[in-house]
């Protein structure tokens, strides 16, 4: 290897030389140390071992990290000392590394890798320099054998005189190595205080400081806190070394030593601050990651809670409970009415005794009031700060392009919201707005469904002398869809009444349209006095043509007065469940009628007619499959339970029979009904 710009060697018999090429690998520094150790042992230069190994590690590590090429390690020893040259094969100049006072505001990664190696080389080496070749570049250092040596002009000078008489010697290689080997305990829950204390103690002893302190402000509202202390507290009147820690916001801090500003004191303080800053930055990133994970969990839980509520008022009341106190001291939700005015929907405060004052402040009017700022946030659709006395900010509630109102949040007394918290609050506002909009849409759908369902059912049943009518209807629980169950009582031209109960397949708007079609066709044909078989036949034709593939089961009963106070009933079933006949005289209840063909499936249908005479007190109970198919786990309510429940109701009025059967079916299961429940009771009320 050529060394045109480097140490001179005579190549005599007393010289021990080793040249090794090593890969750019993390194991290279260890291999380089092994080569140096073997040469020192051959040359009987064991007194140089600590310094040589320390400087070899620094140069080889720096070359591996920056050059990322193979390395040539040349070790030469003679009777007077040792020379080590580390060369790489990367083009470009050797990194320019400043020895002495450094700018710690430099990027933390750069600070860690640049400055330490050549600071140590400059301190311990007798001579050092660089080599430049066409194939690459290198750095060499020379260590002289211990013993009387001529004084070097750049040796560290002893400390200047001080009023307290303290004096510190030049740090040894062992002390420097011990300083660089201090590391945090990987198994400690919070290793930073012990790590900072160890670093501070070591550097204070090396520079002869009477005291020292590491202050750290994590930006959590508690201000600067003492992370580590050594000796007496630094006194402002004494010479103080202050080195800021190179950490990113919101962290800030400094290392302070009560020591004389010697030639090596400040570089060692800077080096210590840089090492500590690296681990503090790791701590900041770790804490930020933990906080982000906590915020993600919080947002997931908030979304789940908001999604579970389809009630508008409950949803708006839930939002402040989610925000306070985790994200703010207080929170208020305002909604916009149809005229664009803001209305307070819900509010919460960490201190409940402050709620009246919060409400009063939110109601105040004026150009600089909270209300004015809220209107600005709602109008502009942007985040708006709130001034005193309720400091915080307002976020617009926007969902699907609609401005629903504002979410106002007051900051905690001890600290302001950091960027992560603001981002989380904006996300909460988006999710809250979407939940409120979904609840509003669901409420509107429910109102539409209820209105449409009510239009398909008679508002009241007719009051007829000697005939009792009663009905119970329970829509599907928690569903905003219109059901296909319906019932009706229609007057006929011959002083008879037509009792109708049916079930159209499916749910929703299409099922409601078919239900309305069936109901209207029956009313028109029955009002014209058409016979019931013809009514069913023409209704079947209509559903086949216009039913959109839906079918309908139907039960029709023409009711009129008979002889001796009886009621004559002509029963027609078109695929519908048979009604239950309950006799006033007692005895078991029975199913009556013969099943026919459901409407809308076939071109031709059959519907046998059954004539029934109802004595005074007798009743017929009509129902839909929502009653018999009510579930309790895998068990169905069934027709048998319905019949058994109806039998004890003999002699009761139609209203009582309908209400009791409804309660029996509902109480069979704790679950909400999966299908609409319709019950229609016809009773002979003749005295």
Automatic annotation (TrEMBL):
SMART domains: PP2C_SIG
Pfam families associated with the record: GAF, HATPase_c_2, SpoIIE
Basic and acidic residues: compositionally biased ranges: 11-20
Stretches the record annotates as Disordered: 1-20, 144-170
UniProt GO molecular function: phosphatase activity
Residues covered by the PPM-type phosphatase domain: 464-684
SUPFAM superfamilies: GAF domain-like (SSF55781), PP2C-like (SSF81606)
Tagged with keyword ATP-binding: no
InterPro entries: Bact_Sigma-Reg, GAF, GAF-like_dom_sf, HATPase_C_sf, HATPase_dom, PPM-type-like_dom_sf, PPM-type_phosphatase-like_dom
Lineage: superkingdom: Bacteria
Keywords attached to this entry: Hydrolase
PANTHER family: STAGE II SPORULATION PROTEIN E, STAGE II SPORULATION PROTEIN E-RELATED
Protein name: GAF domain-containing protein
Species in which this protein is naturally found: Micromonospora craniellae
